[in-house]
Amino acid sequence: MNILITGATGQVGRAVTQHLQRLSNHEHIYYAVRKPALTREELPAKSWQIRQFDFEDTFSFEAALENIDHLFLLRPPSLTDVDGKVVPLLKAAKKTGLKRIVYLSIQGVDSNKWTPHYKIEQAIKRSGIPYIMLRPGFFMQNLVGPMLEDIRDRDRIFVPAGKNRFNFVDVDEVGEVAARELLRPQIEQDTHTLVAGSPVDFYRVARMLSEVLGRKVKYRNPSLVYFALHKLWKGEAAIFVFVMIMLYRFTTIPAEERYTHRLQRLLQRPPKLLSTYIEENASAFQPEAGKQK
User: Fold this and answer.
1) Of 11, 98, 123, 224, which has the maximum CB count within 10 A?
2) For residues 147 and 159, is the Cβ–Cβ distance under 8 A?
3) How many Å apart are CA 248 and CA 251, to the nearest integer?
């Protein structure tokens, strides 16, 4: 079996490749990268093969997919032109005989049709290629990623989510599920909503942080205008700020997706809870951690 991984140097892609290393036997794994010569040292498994692939270059699609059986498809954050970039990729996949796509979508995508993720899911379904849609909740790793500086240095969570509640999930466990689906030989198709525990708002997340860190962390619920101006002043791209606002304030999660044990069944163990993740990464939220950089 030949497997092609897109987004291998990113957060989710690295988790997928690490679990493929652990779980695979005789499968041939390929990285799809834009600049093979420059990217080789960034890849998690140096022994795997590389194929040149660029979403901006539709001529790269067919060669990258040649003799590939299963594809892990991860949308780059900047990709919004589904018809111009993803649909040609699916046509190339159909032509080369791809047997399965494992696509990283988002939770609640059916209720948020404005997202590129929804449009990509629909394009995959129309292509006729068997698929597994992975719909993870809010990544726990965002707390030690884009939200870390505010938590660590200002004792605040600064996102315009209001009282919206989110299901959290560990990226590593999403990567494990993706790896298992890529290695599964049966050609079945399904949609998996991947969440760990009940949904919580950021007021509750702030209380969790406060309890673990031993200091008061508050959820500052900024207005949309203040949040946008603050992020733009810090140099964030306008389109990225717009996407953040839409995801935090206007994402709707259907009730039936808020409480699901699908992740536990796929992992065959209880998934990691947000409280556990915060405890495991408590040192990253300490002010001293920022001074060491």
Assistant:
1) 98
2) yes
3) 6
Burial class (CB in 10 A: 0-12, 13-18, 19+), 10: middle
Which tokens go with 83?
């018809």
50-83 burial code (b ≥16 CB/10 A, e <16): bbbbbbeeeebbeebbeebbbbbbbbeeeeeebe
Read off the pLDDT of residues 121-147 as tens digits, 9 standing for 90 and up: 999 999 999 999 999 999 999 999 989
User: Which of 32, 24, 181 lies closest to 100 in space, CA to CA?
Assistant: 181
Record the tokens describing residue 91, joined without a space.
């046509």
Report the DSSP beta bridge partners of residue 100. Answer: 70
* Surface-to-core class of residue 142, CB atoms within 10 Å of its CB (0-12 exposed, 13-18 middle, 19+ buried): middle
Q: Model-level pTM?
A: 0.91
Q: What is the pLDDT of residues 77-106, one digit of tens each?
A: 888 889 999 999 999 999 999 999 999 999
Q: What letter represents residue 184's amino acid?
A: R
| Total residue length of the chain | 293
Using DSSP, state whether 73 is helix, strand or coil: strand
CA 156, chain centre distance (Å): 24
For the chain, what is the largest distance between any 2 Cα atoms, rounded to a whole number of angstroms? 58
